[in-house]
Write a structure and sequence with these properties.
Length: about 270
């Protein structure tokens, strides 16, 4: 697959340069709460179709199923079609990181070669992701997580199929902002102590597929940000589940105060051969 990595980078850079002004305006308009911007038609559609087709079957991915979430993920990218690894790491090219820094105004960002909670994901019928704050740091707790990049690749995925990103800029008592997980769409959102987000339950037979990355920095987006594990809440109206999830977060935070990197190593990491 010679040259495909550079092709992906070329097309992403070209598209970002074309829509940079609109993206900057959208991010500035939303940054007071949860800053985000959306780029449609990121790649030539035939390339995005190939990325979608390269996804492994669910049985070859890791199922993360609990009261918090229900989804398939994978980060050990050398186990799968090489196109997927190239698609993931294209977003880590310095030219793309620099363009996104110019759009958001966040300087000195670093992509994550370890793909800590990044890589690829799929969600099928009835799968979901409860409202949550992303883990505040990288796997070694040296850098702050500042941006989440989500590239949706499933053709003909309609908004009423579910599996859409939901942003809660005004908290769980108000309606979320729904961002359709539309084919060939890139969503870039800020991650900080108020960046509560979720994924709506999938109602369709079939999988909503996504390529994801995180960017990190030496300083948090907000001076008030503090270290936290991935912190889940329940959707509005489910008070008992919300209490259970709050208790779950409290317990995991207590563990991390004693064991900085947790009791067991997080398996959602790309372990490359030395």
């Amino acid at each position: 697959m010679p040259g495909i990595q550079q092709d992906l980078i070329f097309y992403i850079v070209k598209r970002l340069e074309t829509v940079a002004a609109q993206c900057r305006q959208q991010y500035e308009h939303t940054r007071g709460k949860i800053g985000f911007f959306v780029v449609d038609d990121l790649l030539p559609p035939e390339i995005t179709m190939q990325i979608n087709a390269a996804f492994p079957p669910a049985r070859e991915m890791m199922l993360k199923k609990s009261i918090r979430q229900d989804k398939y993920v994978a980060s050990q990218m050398d186990k799968y079609n090489p196109l997927l690894e190239r698609a993931v790491f294209a977003f880590q090219d310095p030219k793309i990181v620099e363009l996104i820094a110019e759009i958001t105004g966040i300087q000195k960002m670093q992509p994550d070669a370890n793909l800590y909670a990044g890589g690829i994901s799929m969600m099928g019928k009835n799968q979901f992701l409860n409202p949550h704050l992303d883990n505040s740091h990288d796997k070694d707790r040296n850098l702050w997580r500042v941006l989440n990049l989500l590239f949706y690749v499933t053709p003909d995925w309609k908004e009423n199929f579910g599996g859409n990103l939901e942003l809660w800029p005004d908290g769980l008592q108000q309606k979320p902002v729904t961002v359709h997980g539309k084919f060939n769409r890139l969503v870039v959102m800020a991650t900080h102590d108020d960046a509560l987000h979720s994924v709506s339950p999938v109602t369709h037979h079939g999988f909503r597929k996504c390529v994801s990355n995180y960017y990190f920095a030496e300083a948090p987006l907000r001076d008030s940000d503090k270290f936290h594990v991935t912190s889940f809440r329940a959707c509005p109206g489910n008070k008992l589940k919300d209490k259970m999830l709050k208790a779950d977060t409290w317990l995991r935070m207590k563990v991390r105060k004693i064991f900085k990197k947790g009791i067991v190593e997080n398996p959602h990491v790309y372990k490359k051969e030395k």
